[in-house]
Fold this sequence. Notes:
The protein has 77 residues and is of the alpha+beta class. It has one domain (2-74). Helix content is 27%, strand content 40%. The protein has one helix at residues 34-54; strands spanning 2-12, 18-27, 65-74. It has a 3-stranded antiparallel sheet. Strand 1 and strand 2 (18-27) form a beta hairpin.
Amino acid sequence: xxxxxxxxxxxxxxxxxxxxxxxxxxxxxxxxxxxxxxxxxxxxxxxxxxxxxxxxxxxxxxxxxxxxxxxxxxxxx
Length: 77
């Protein structure tokens, strides 16, 4: 398994905060599929981030979050 790192931003349709962060994951050999990576980031990083900001009283829809992966590469750090 090779570690990878990605720089991404996530925006919610209503919550007026932009998540600008990195995401680290391990994958088997092969290229990075940007669509699959964006979905993984949405599930594992963006949804928990926006739920933390919005609090438990505000339901968040996954479809309202747009993730943009700016760069992704193998991580040798």
